[in-house]
Design a protein that fits this description.
The structure is a single chain. It is built from five helices and two strands. It is mainly α. The chain is rod-shaped.
Length: 230
Amino acid sequence: MALPQVANLERAKWRTQCRQQLSEHIQSKLGISIKPSQVRLITGIDDTYNWSFLPEKRHLFSKHLSKHSTSAYMQLCREVGTSFEAVNAETSTWHIAQVKQGDASLSQQDTGFAVKIEQLEVENSRLTSELNQWRDQAIKESESKGYAEEEVDQLQFALQTAWTEIQQMQHEINNWALTVDFFKKSTIQSYRGLNEVFLLLEKLKLELPTLYNGQNLDWISSEVANGMMS
């Protein structure tokens, strides 16, 4: 089985789904419409959004979206809005600067996700790291299971194809059997007809007028028979 090809198709499927979910998240969170194909994890100065994430998720934003693995796409889809979220590019820098300076006037309502990250990173770091280890192991097992299921599907397809071919061959065999039976019956009928002709000729020989003076007429049967055989 071509497992690498299957893995590439699976990775492409999750990449497309990941782009779609991130695009929808940006739209619902910021009201900014970004095409799925234009979503970036590493944003530039021209982008109208940025990403705010927990420290242990930094590796997800250290490379471009197209370079990630299947497990990374699955993780991004699963944790968008939970361990990371989109923030407005114009305000995200300002919030981070205010938190680092310890601005007490920044209200709890206005701090946003960036400040929550600072407040929770120590408490959540250990638990999240442990959870990630278990999750990564589960993802690997899931991918292995996916490969096995793909092989089973392909084997079932091959068996179904073989069964279809067997049924077609059986149909052809039945047709040939009917043809053979037809010619067999035709041959039997021909022999029966020929036998009836011979009987008729024998009867004619017995009933011929005596003007032939008892001449042997066996040649008549032979000639007629030869003519029919030819």
